[in-house]
Design brief:
Blueprint: H1 7-39, H2 42-68, H3 83-111, H4 119-147, H5 150-179, H6 184-211, H7 218-231, E1 237-246, E2 249-257, H8 264-281, E3 285-292, E4 302-303
Parallel strand pairs: 2-3
Antiparallel strand pairs: 1-2, 1-4
Helix pairs in contact: 1-2, 1-4, 2-3, 2-5, 2-6, 3-5, 3-6, 4-5, 5-6, 7-8
Length: about 300
């Protein structure tokens, strides 16, 4: 297994991704607004409105990612990695605001129906923006998972939700064009608003879990237990294992029981071996081990064979 890349390299890559995300959001916004301008469709207006949220969310994510990579200081001895969760919360709030604006516009179009102009041209323009968004959303979600970046992952999920709503808008407008049912335009806009409200809820709740020190995924925690057991030769038992996530950082702590006669140096060697194995497998892991004498064994922790 390869060693983790230097902190500066990781920070530079994630920051560049966040910067590119802002640029792409601006480009997509311009394309979607052009589609709305050509047609006058309230559904395409709602799609463009969500892209404004993408631009603002991208800027916030860029700020949060840059802050999260700042080294620990006297005021923040555990680092700044939780900053990305705040970005995702703000993004969720912005999504709700955008949904309210879209619903207002849809209601107005329902009361006073509008006739779309050049609908096929507008739909084609919007399809280009949707394709760009789909490709970028997949990339962001994958990179967010790889880098354990809540801001990038939330941005990717939000853009993917935008893709789903855009596909729905395009399908609805095609039906409206073929049938002449103009009522479908504001109805599609309302559905877009409801869908992004759902996405906003998911983004906020996911981020709040991180702010509340959510534990590692059960599969990862099982891997932690296996690594401890495989590298704790000489110890008797490990118990009270606790994990928590703070953005891309992972905190792992536990108590390790050793024989009464073991020297401090020998116990320290075991701790180093376990810590090295955990950090090699989990980039960003921070390990705290409390060594205890044999009398403290609980026989309910991770057995060391």
């Amino acid at each position: 297994m390869s060693a983790p890349e230097p902190r500066d390299a990781g920070a530079t890559l994630v920051t560049r991704i966040a910067m590119v995300s802002v640029v792409i959001a601006v480009v997509v916004l311009g394309i979607k607004y052009a589609a709305y301008h050509v047609t006058g469709s309230v559904a395409l207006f709602s799609d463009a409105m969500e892209s404004i949220v993408n631009v603002v969310a991208g800027l916030i994510a860029l700020w949060a990612v840059s802050l999260s990579y700042k080294p620990a200081d006297s005021d923040h001895p555990f680092g700044h990695t939780k900053a990305e969760y705040f970005s995702a919360v703000v993004e969720g709030v912005l999504i709700v605001v955008a949904a309210m604006l879209i619903l207002r516009e849809a209601w107005g179009a329902y009361l006073v129906p509008r006739t779309m102009e050049a609908p096929l041209t507008g739909i084609a323009i919007n399809a280009v923006a949707t394709t760009i968004n789909a490709a970028w959303a997949v990339y962001l979600i994958r990179r967010g998972a790889e880098r354990r970046s809540p801001a990038l992952a939330a941005d990717g999920r939000h853009i993917m939700a935008d893709v789903v709503t855009s596909v729905g808008v395009i399908g609805g407008l095609l039906i409206a064009t073929a049938t002449g049912w103009s009522i479908l335009d504001p109805l599609m806009a309302a559905l877009v608003a409801l869908n992004i409200l759902r996405e906003g809820y998911l983004v906020v709740t996911s981020s709040l879990s991180g702010l509340m020190d959510q534990a590692m995924h059960p599969g990862e925690e099982a891997q932690v237990r296996d690594l401890i057991s495989a590298n704790a030769d000489g110890a008797l038992e490990v118990h009270d294992l606790k994990t928590r996530l703070a953005g891309r950082a992972m905190f792992i702590e536990f108590h390790m029981v050793v024989p009464e006669e073991m020297t401090v140096g020998a116990a320290h060697d075991i701790c180093d071996r376990i810590e090295d194995a955990l950090k090699l497998s989990f980039d960003g892991a921070r390990v705290l081990i409390h060594v205890e004498p044999e009398a403290e064994a609980k026989q309910t922790g991770v057995p060391v064979l």
